[in-house]
Amino acid sequence: MTRIRTALKGKWPFAICSGILVVFFLVSILAPWIAPNDPIQVNLALKLMPPSLEYPLGTDQLGRCNLSRLLFGARVSLGFATLIFVASLGIGLVIGTLSGYRGGWIDTLLMRFCDGVMAFPNLVLVLGIVGLLGPGLWQVVVALMMVQWVYYARMIRGMVVSMKEQNFITAARISGSSNWKIIRRHLVPNVLPPIMVMGTLEMGWAIMDISALSFLGLGIQPPTPEWGAMIHEGTSFMRSNPELMLYPGLMILFVVISFNVIGESLSEQFGVKRRY
Amino acid sequence: MVIYLIKRLFAVVPIILFAIFLMFVLVRLSPVDPAQAYLAASNIHPTEELLAEKRQEFGLDRPLIVQYFQTVADIVRFDFGNSYVTNTPVWQEITTRLPATLQLALSSILVAIIVSVPLGFLSAVYKNSWLDHFSRLLSYLGASIPQFWLGYVLIFFFAVKLDLFPVEGRGTWQHFVLPSITLSLALIAIYTRLLRASVLEELEEAYVLYGRTRGLKEKGIMAKHVLRISISPMLTGLGMNLGKLLTGTIIVEQVFSWPGFGRFFIEAIFNRDIPVIQSYVVLAACLFIVCNLIVDIIQLYLDPRISRKGRAQF
Asked: In angstroms, rounded to a whole number, what is the distance separating the alpha carbons of residues B23 and B275?
């Protein structure tokens, strides 16, 4: 017990936020089993009901269970944020390692491309891509991925370039390791931890971006429950039922703040510089 | 210093050209046919002849490389084409809507600076005090609250419940209060942390110790030297977060029905108004780049050490 207490000393925000995230991830996985009702079951006879045993947080303007919609909303937000994170990390890892390890004109070409993408304000480019591809969830996911990987690629490339010159890589090469083996066994494992730290911060951004785009009506289309879209629907009933827009916003706030707190304290530990 | 400025100026050109190129490629890759989008937006039934005619008018039948140079030449002359929906030049649409957006952006930068300079500075000087903890909490909140939600929460409490400010629209100063607060909170979060970090860093410098040993007043050291140097990274932050401010205006304009450029952009996305989308994105990139350039120049004046090193530090 004392050991746990010393381990957590000064780290309780980190511990609480990890706890919150674990709960949210569990909820999003278990949503179909723990949700009390069907999140898209419309029942106009029961619209805008106050909390009851059957509907613990009441119902919305179409008589759908608020709690169930919030639980399923976690699934969409966390699920797609994770997908975007994994995919853009994957692309960034391939391009960044290639660029840093090969060097030469490939490096110049790829990094100039990244510079170009970074010249755009992030979400403006995402909105532009969504605008040209048309509204929809997958378009949003593709657009966010197309913009995010650049940041991973840049960071990974920087680390690979500085690591390439270090002795352990030279030693590996002298002992006859192939390029592929050096990348797989030595570079990637060393690059990943700081990138994961950056990733926790990016997850928070991704969740905000997805919900903002859904709020604007460009992302998830109804009736799929998603927090941003729920806020948008809830605003029409602000005067009579403010909780319709308050609950989903609080959900986003909790999740994003947890990712930020964890990301921040991890980046302090790992000495990763935060991208503002 | 002049050489540095000229170098920076020339470095901007290829980035802007690339930005135009990227947008050009995206438009060509998009599954939407501009001719079809135009006819759909103007409610004309698309026939083969009309589509072919429009394609010729837009120059889509010419080789891609010619089209690209045509696009660049048009943009340099501030010719962004006509909006498919209103059929007026996009540049004209922009100039009528931009002032509203700029007013909103500037007033929130102002709010952000007024709040975050004292807050960031004091929370560094009184490190680990309740003020420092408060500013930490505020910056976490600012970084994590979805802006559109914050906007509606403010409307709910201050416009609906307390009836202090108008719900939406633009006109009097009261109209500015809620949108500016909404937009500035995210900026306050960043600037406060940036300023706090850089003040803490400067306090370790030798000149602070020297000033103290010489018996200079603490206030004088802080105001004249530490604050002046510490503002510099904050300015970089200002430039780098312009993108956040721009996307913020899109969302806040939507929430508060603010008649600005951001709202026009969102409408354009729904209408597939390609010239508007294209010019918004290209202009946003140009604005972003130019502002960062200006920030770099201001920094040169504030912190002469930069020009000796030959480049701006981040």
From this structure: 11
